[in-house]
Amino acid sequence: MKRIAETLVDEGLRVSLVEKAFFDGDLEIPHIDAPENFSEPIGMVPFSQRERDHAHENFVCFYEHDIQFRDVLTHTESYLDDLRRFPGIITPDCSLYIDSPLCVQITSIYLNRAIGYYFQENGLTVIPNIRWGDERTYTTTLFGEKIAFLGVEKHSVVSIGTYGQIKSAESKRFFKEGLIAMLDELEPRMVLVYGSMPNAIFGDVLDRTVFCQYPDWISKKKHESSRLQQNEE
What is the reported pTM? Predict the structure, then answer.
C-alpha cells in the first residue's frame, strides 16, 4: 500500500497497520492467512476478563460489548506483548448491527481483518472471527462478492459467536442465513463457536464441518461456581 499522509479517517481505520497486507476483493479487505500448526483452543476468555485466566491457557476473544475492547482498535500496537502471553486470539468482534448503514457494517469487517492481520504479522496465532450483518453482507445481491467473508482463507479454521446475537426471531433468521452462506463460501474445516448452538439454527448444518463449542464466560463461571458449591456440600 502506498504511504499516504495520515488523516483522522486513516488513523481511525488503522491504515498504518495494513501497509504490507494483501487485500481481497474489490473492497480490498486485509487478508489473514490460515494459522500454522493450529491446536484446538482449550477455551476462550473475553478480552476484558483475560487477567482472570491466570494460567494464560485460553484464546483471547472479543465476544463482548465493543466498548470493552475499544482501546485495542485504537492503540493496537500497545497490546502486542500483553496478548503474547496467550496461545492465540480471535479477531475483534466489531458489531455489525443489521440496522446500521452498509458503510458502517463494511468498516467493522475491515477493522476485524486489519487488527487480525497486524497481530498475525507480529507473530500471534490468529483465528478470524466471522461476523455478518444484514443480507447485503453475506449475499451477492448488491456487490459481486460476499463482503462478510473477504480476507479469510477457505478450508481453514474460523470462529463465530452466538452470545447475544440470536435473541429475536429476526436476528435468528439473519444468523442462520449468514451461517449457511459462510459454510458455502469458506468451507471451513473447523468452526469455533462461542455461546450456545440451538438446534433450530445449527441442526441442519452439523454434518458440514467440525463445530467446537465454548460456553460464554458468564455461563462458564456460573457452572464452575455451582460445581464448587456441590463439591463443598
Answer: 0.91
